[in-house]
Amino acid sequence: MSDTTGKEVTRRGFITRVGQGLVAANLAGSLLKNASAQLTVPDPPGKKLGWAIVGLGSLSIHQILPAFAKCEKSKVVAFVSGHPDKANKLALRYGVSPKNIYNYQNYDSIKDNPDVDIIYIVLPNGMHAEYTVRGFQAGKHVLCEKPMANTAAECQQMIDAAQRANRKLMIAYRCRYEPYNREAIRIAQSKELGPTQMIIADTGFNIGDPNQWRLNRKLAGGGSLMDIGIYALNASRYLSGEEPTEVNAMTYTSPGDPRFKEVEEHINFQLGFPSGLLANCTSSYGYFPQSHYRVLGTEGRIEMDPATWYTGLRMRLSRRNTIEEREFPEVDHFASEMDHMSDCVMQNKEPLTPGEEGLRDLKIMMKIYEAAQSRQTIKL
Ligand code: NAD
User: Fold this and answer.
1) Residue 249 region, left (φ>0) first, then alpha (ψ -120 to 50), else beta?
2) Residues noted as catalytic
3) 125 contact partners, CB below 8 Å, separation of at least 6
4) Residue 37: its pLDDT value, please?
5) Which residue of 59, 104, 217, 224 sits with most ligand 1 atoms within 8 Å of its CB, as the best mutation to test the pocket?
6) What does the longest C-alpha to C-alpha distance in the chain come to?
7) Which of 50, 324, 295 is nearest to 181 (CA)?
8) Is the CB of 175 under 6 A from ligand 1?
9) 65 in ligand 1 pocket by Cβ < 6 Å?
10) For position 367, what pLDDT does the model report?
11) How remote is the C-alpha of 41 from its chain's centroid?
């Protein structure tokens, strides 16, 4: 009895499971049919502008060149490099014609190449001004990596060269072209969490090889502030929507560390803004990788950690009784910024982060160094 009942139950169970399986299979089939009915096949690309990459180092190889696959308005067509073997190998990978490979000596002849519309400067900071100005003299538009240059005077030369050539100049502040930072700006400036009282931003990493250009003053312009602290400074400005009016700073460099013969290791700085908002920032070549900011409003807090890395950004919003994790589709920062530049050239629009934006950061960074040296509050 129990056996029969058991069998019946088992059979019934089996039938039920098979039935469910069939239902599931039918459902899956109809979902698949619907999915294929809804599948949108991407349009063929529209017009893409031609880009020349100047400097085939780590950023170009690992981030910028792969990003072209995700661009809608930009394609890589030329390289400028001091290493022909590397350039030829990358040309094969990315379909760049060998006739479009230049070196630093014949770079200026790029003016005769109609394939190239925009030049992307990805060289050590101390070379940005020269190669940007030469790019404008060749009649091209220029996207230049951050920091814009070593000095404010060089930044001004770059802006003037763009104006003379009637070409666009954009600085590669990639965080302005991805959804997390854009949402943080929107929330902070909409006062959804009350007026912002303070911003706390920490950006740094533990730098390696003592012989790299980042530790050479002539090529880097300074230490951690120029390379990575600039993210904390720029974020304080874009999150507040204000320009600082005063600055305090303090540096520390480990004595005898062979990496820091010419540039600072740590630098902490504070910014005062017209509304009374204060920013507290740290920048380091000595601590474990950090890219973090908090925007503290009267009614809540935005926390981004990591805030400025290439991928994996996270945003947390805290209010009185809730903590909310906000997620956005991951966007390739470099594809997005390059397409923005191409779009500005095509539509004759001013980039979101023009040369003047780079110049503002440079001027403030020089005052941060001055404040650290004098141990005085500097008015801007
Ligand atoms: P890198 O050292 O990896 O590459 C620098 C390139 O410049 C190399 O190809 C090198 O051969 C070339 N070069 C030409 N002349 C040189 C010289 N005299 N000394 C040293 N190198 C010389 O550096 P990178 O990390 O690719 O940085 C390049 C630029 O990009 C810098 O301005 C840096 O601040 C910026 N960067 C921006 C981001 C970002 O997220 N936006 C990230 C990393 C670097």
Assistant:
1) beta
2) 146, 231
3) 145, 147, 149, 150, 219, 220, 221, 226, 227
4) 65
5) 59
6) 98
7) 295
8) no
9) no
10) 98
11) 29
pLDDT-flagged residues of the chain (< 70): 1-37
Question: Helix 355-374 vs helix 152-165: angle between axes, to the nearest 10 degrees?
Answer: 170
Do 49-174 and 179-329+354-379 share a fold? Answer: no
Residue type at 233?
L
Phi, psi dihedral angles at 321 (to 5 degrees): -120, 10
**What interhelical angle do 230-240 and 179-190 show, nearest 10?**
40
Residue type, 334: F
Q: What is the DSSP string of 307-356?
A: SSSSS---EEEE-SS-EEEE------HHHHHHHHHHHHHHHT---SSBHH
Q: Which tokens go with 30?
A: 């109809």
According to DSSP, residue 287 is labeled S
The token duo for 109 is 């002849």
- Burial of 271 per CB tally in 10 Å (0-12, 13-18, 19+): buried
The pair of three-digit structure tokens given for residue 284, joined into one six-digit string:
């380091």
What DSSP assignment string belongs to 180-231? HHHHHHHHHHHTTTSSEEEEEEEEE-----TTSGGG-HHHHSSSHIIIIIHH
Question: Nearest to residue 144, comparing CAs of 125, 161, 167?
Answer: 125
DSSP 50: E
| Residue range 179-329+354-379, CATH number | 3.30.360.10
**Does residue 55's CB lie within 6 angstroms of at least one atom of ligand 1?**
yes
Q: Residue 211: CB within 6 Å of ligand 1?
A: no
pLDDT score, position 8: 35
Position 44 scores a pLDDT of 80
Domain extents in the chain? 49-174, 179-329+354-379
Q: What pLDDT is attached to residue 95?
A: 98
The pLDDT, as a whole number, for residue 161 is: 98
Instruction: Tell whether domain 49-174 is in CATH 3.40.50.720.
Output: yes
Tell me the DSSP string of 94-123: HT--GGGEE-TTTGGGGGG-TT--EEEE-S
